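S.,

As promised, the zinc ion run. Input:
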Amino acid sequence: MNRRSLFVASAVALAVLGCHDEPTTPSVEIPLESASRPLEGWFHVLWVDPAPGYGPATVRYELVDKRGHGTELDFDPGVAARWGGPRGLDGRKVRVDGTPVARGRLRVRSIEPVAGPPAAAPSAVQIGSHPYVTILCKFSDITSVRQTVAKYRAWTTGTSYPGLDHYWRQVSYNKMNVTGSKVVGWYTLPHPMSYYSGPDYWDTGSLLADCAGAADADVDFPQFYGINIQVNGEMNGRSAATIGSSWTLTLDGQTKTYGVTWLYGRASIATYAHEDGHTLGLMHSSGPYSRTYDSQWDVMSWDGPGFYHENWEHIPQHTISYHKDLLGWIPAARKLTVGPNTSRSVTLERLALPGSGNYLMAQIPMYNAPGQFYTIEARQRVSYDDSLPGDAVVLHQVDPDRGDHLAQVVDVDNNGDPNDAAAMWTPGETFRDSANGITVAVNAQTPTGVQVTIRRNTSGLWVSPTSMSTPRRALAVTVANDSIYVIGGANGAGTVLRMVEIYGPGAGWTGPEAPLPAPREGGNGAVTLNGIVYLAGGQNALGGLTRTLYALKTNAGSYEWNTLAPMPAYSACGGSAAIGGKLYVFSGCTRSGTGAQINAGLLHRYNPNTNTWTTLKPAPVTHFRPAVAAIGGRLYVVGGENGAGAPIGRVDVYDPATNTWSTRRNMPTARMNAGAAVLGGKLYVVGGRSGTAYLKTVEAYDPVTNAWTSRTAMPTARAALGVSAAGGFLYAIGGRNTTAALATVERFTP
Ligand SMILES: [Zn+2]
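Predicted complex:
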C-alpha cells in the first residue's frame, strides 16, 4: 500500500469515527502532492522520546485538520518567530502555506494563526482533576501483550503508591490529580503495525484515530483531559518512541484539544508520568550538556534505570521546582524570589513530602542575563524520590527562551554527569556566581529540608540590556528628559552618520529620527542644557574638522536641529560638558595655519543666552581624544594621547571661577579614546585604548579624596564609545574593538 492510498484509508476511518455526530459520506482527502492552497487546522507540538538506542529527543510539528487527520510539518522554527515560535502556536488554529514533500509531509513557507475561536490550548497552570482515558490497542498482526489490563489500571488510576493519581497528588501538593481516569481495551486495530509505523514514518494521527475510534462506544471523550494510546508493539526506526503532545479532535460532538500520549509496549509507569508531563505543558530539563535524558533529578529528563520497583518497573521521581512552579503548584508564599542586594537565611523543604510552612524553592534572577534565573531546591531520598543520587540542594539555571531544556542542572565540574557530587550542594558547601553577585551557602540539614543562606549583590555588576539599531563608533551621547540620545558617529563601513537614536530606560529605543544637518563623528561629545542638546564641532563625512554648533530642542514636541553661532576654532577629538548653564568645549585637535589637523588643548565657552563664544585659557598640555566631564563645577580632561602619540593618564582640571588649570592625581591606566560620565559624585572613565590594546577596564575618580579606584570591568573591550549616566546606571554605548563598530550597550550598577 502506498502512502497516498494510506491517507484515503485514514480519512475513511476518521469519517467513520466521527459519523454519529457528523453523518457525512466518507470524503477523500486531496492528496498532498497536488495541494497548493493554504491548509487550515490546529497546530500541535509533539515531544518525541525515542527508545534507548534510537537517537536523540526530537520535536515534531503537526497540522491537525477538523477530522483529526495530522500532516507533519517540516519547518524552521524561525518561520513562526513572530508568533512566539512553535510553542506560541501550540494548540492554535493556523493557516499554513507550504510545499508537499515526501510521505505527505509539508515543507512550511508561512504559518499564521487564523481568526475564529481558538482551540482550548493547554494552560500553563494545571490545577484540579485531569482524568486520562488509557486506551489499550493491539496491532492486527500482534497478539502478545507486555502488561495486563490490571497493571495498566493500577498504574494510571492508582490512588496509592505507586499509582499516577497518588503520584500527581504528591508531586503537585494536592493541587492536581487524575481522579476519574479510566482504562479501556484491549481493542484490535484494523491494521498491522507496519501500516502505522516503519523505519522512517509514523502516522500518529491514524493510530490515534483508529484506537480512539475502536473505543468510541465505551468512552465519553469530552469528560477526559487526556488520552493515552497504549499499543502492544515496540515499533521501530523513527517511530520507536513514546510521545507526549496535544491534539485537537472532534469526538462525541465536541471539538476539543486533548493531551495525547502514544506509548509503546515497553512503557513503564515512569514513561506515563513523563509523557503526561508533556501533555501538561512541560518540556524537558537536563544537565548543562547537549543531552536530554541525563538528569536523575527530574522525571522530565530521566525515566530510566535507578528508579526500579520490583513490580512496577521504573518509578517516576518528582519533577523539579521550576516545573512545579510553572504548573501553579508552588504557593506564592512558599517561593522565595531573591531581590537585589539581599541576604536571606531560610529553610528549604524537600520537594517530596515536605514539612509545612517553609519555602519549597528559591529563585534568583541573573543580573547579567535578563529573564534568566537560578532555582534552588532541596531533594531527599523519600517516596517517589527514594532513588535520587543523594540528599542535596540542587540548582538549575533557567533560560525561558531556550527551545527545550529550559532548566539545566548547575554542574560545576562540567564532567558530563549532572548526578554527581559537583551537582549536589551539601552542608558546608557554597555555590558562587561572581558575575551575577550570587552565593548560595548550604548550612545544615533538617529532618525534611535544608538551611541555606542566599546572597545577591548586584552592586558593581555589568549587564547587556540592549543594542542600537546601527553599529557606530566615535559617536556622541547625552541624556535629556531621562533618555539617552545617541548622535552621529561612523558605522561599520566607515560611513559618517547623521542619524539619532533615543533610548529610554524601560521604553527601549526610538528612531532613527531627527537627523543632524550634516554627518558628524569623532567630535566633542554632546551636552544637554535646559532640555536642549548641543553638538559642537566634530569631523564631517570627509574627515575634515568643523566649527559648527548644532542644537536640538528635545521638549518641543518636534525634533529639529538648529544651527547656531560657529565655534571660534575648528574643533574635534575632544569633549564637552555643562557648567553653570554654559557649554564648555575642549578641543583635542584643531587646524594649523596651513589647514592641517594638529593636536590641541583649546578651551571655549558657549553662552546660550547670547549665542556667543568665549575663548578661554588652553590646557597646559595637549590631550588628543581624552575623556572629558564636569564635576564640582570644574572641567576634567583625563588621559588621551600626548603630542608624541602615546596614551597618558594625566588629569588637567579647569576652574571657571579663576580661568586657571591645575593637575590632579594621574589615572592609573594611561588610555585614549575612552568615555567618561559622572555618577554618584565620581568621575568614571570607561574603556578606550592603551597603545594597541582595546580596554574593558573602568576607573573611578573621587574629587573629594583625589583618589582613583578600579571598578568592575565591562564585558566588552571598546574604544571610541559613548558613556552616559542615566537612572542611576552607567551606560557604555557602541564604539569599536577588533570589529569595525559595535551596536551593543552595556550597563553598570555602581
Ligand atoms: Zn519527553
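Confidence is low (pLDDT under 50) at residues 1-35, 117-122. Residues 47, 49, 244, 274, 278, 284 surround zinc ion (CB under 6 Å).

- D.
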